[in-house]
Every structure is written in structure tokens, then in C-alpha cells.
């Protein structure tokens, strides 16, 4: 079995799409190809092992299980341990204060036209860099909620689903997947 990270978009935010992590672990354990499952905080971070190696199939299995159990859709991105390691290792803002750093994970790699629109977006005083299927964000302050570049801007300009995690969460998920 290989280990993976699943990040869910928009659950447990403002009382919407409520999913308890204990319940999520239980329903995901019903998926035949899944092994050990762990979650991290209430925002939908799952570390798991699976015999299935196709991340698209894993995403669909998780999304279908959630939709069938809870009655609502949740966009899911599944990352391999190698992909998350690459994200961590290639952070262009690694020397900045961790409290200012975020990674926006893109569901797919954006087409060039949309990527260029995002790259031309003026987010100052915040900084960002798009690389393949992710966007690194360095906020001018510790308040991502006040940032000029965020998940909504990325989705609007790239026209694809994405979900953002702070850098502390990214590091923790990598630690968890390495220990599973």
C-alpha cells in the first residue's frame, strides 16, 4: 500500500458542510482499497494508505462516499507523499516567517491562458508564485483572510477548483504521511 494525503475543500467553514473527523474516518474505512486513515484538524486533512495508486480514482471514491453519506459535494484533492514532498522542498518563500506562508493546491494544472491571467494579477503587498499544480502564497501580514491573493481569486482566474492550506498544516501533513 502507498500513502496519500487528501485535502477537502470548504468543509466546517462557518457552519457549512459540517463533517466530524471521527465520522469521516469511519465512512472512509468502508472503501475497500483503503488501509489506515488519520485526520488532522477539522478542516478536512486526511492521511491514508491505499492499494489503489491512481489519485483521480481515490479522489472520486472519497467524493462519492461523502456525497452518499452527507448529501453534499466536496471537492477533494489527493496528493502522493512525493507530490507533497516536492511542494515543501520547492517553496520559493521558505526563508519567510511560516505564519505568512500558504499553499493553494490546484485540482489540475491550469491552461496557459488562465495561468497568465493569474500571474498578471497584482496582489501587492502579498506575493505569490504559480508552479504546475500549486500556488505558493506569502502574505504581507500573518492574516491570510486579509490577503489580496486567495483561493477565490485563484479559482476565478484559473477556472479550476483549488484549496489552500497554511504552511504549518502542509508540514504537519508531510510528517504524518511519512509516519504512516
UniProtKB/TrEMBL annotation:
It comes from the Bacteria. Transmembrane segments: none annotated. It holds the Pfam family DUF1697. InterPro entries: DUF1697 (IPR012545). PANTHER family: BLL4334 PROTEIN, DUF1697 DOMAIN-CONTAINING PROTEIN. This is DUF1697 domain-containing protein. The lineage of its organism: Bacteria, Pseudomonadati, Bacteroidota, Flavobacteriia, Flavobacteriales.
Amino acid at each position: 500500500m502507498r500513502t496519500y494525503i487528501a485535502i477537502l475543500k470548504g468543509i466546517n467553514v462557518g457552519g457549512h458542510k459540517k463533517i466530524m473527523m471521527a465520522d469521516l474516518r469511519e465512512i472512509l474505512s468502508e472503501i475497500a482499497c483503503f488501509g489506515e486513515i488519520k485526520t488532522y484538524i477539522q478542516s478536512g486533512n486526511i492521511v491514508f494508505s491505499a492499494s489503489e495508486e491512481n489519485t483521480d480514482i481515490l479522489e472520486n471514491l472519497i467524493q462519492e462516499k461523502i456525497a452518499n453519506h452527507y448529501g453534499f459535494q466536496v471537492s477533494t484533492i489527493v496528493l502522493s507523499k512525493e507530490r507533497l514532498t516536492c511542494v515543501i522542498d520547492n517553496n520559493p518563500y521558505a526563508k519567510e516567517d511560516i505564519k505568512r506562508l500558504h499553499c493553494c493546491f490546484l485540482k489540475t494544472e491550469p491552461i496557459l491562458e488562465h495561468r497568465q491571467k493569474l500571474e498578471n494579477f497584482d496582489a501587492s503587498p502579498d506575493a505569490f508564485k504559480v508552479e504546475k499544480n500549486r500556488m505558493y502564497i506569502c502574505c504581507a501580514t500573518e492574516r491570510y483572510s486579509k490577503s489580496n491573493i486567495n483561493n477565490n481569486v485563484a479559482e476565478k482566474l484559473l477556472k479550476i477548483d483549488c484549496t489552500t492550506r497554511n504552511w504549518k498544516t502542509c508540514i504537519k501533513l508531510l510528517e504524518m504521511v511519512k509516519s504512516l
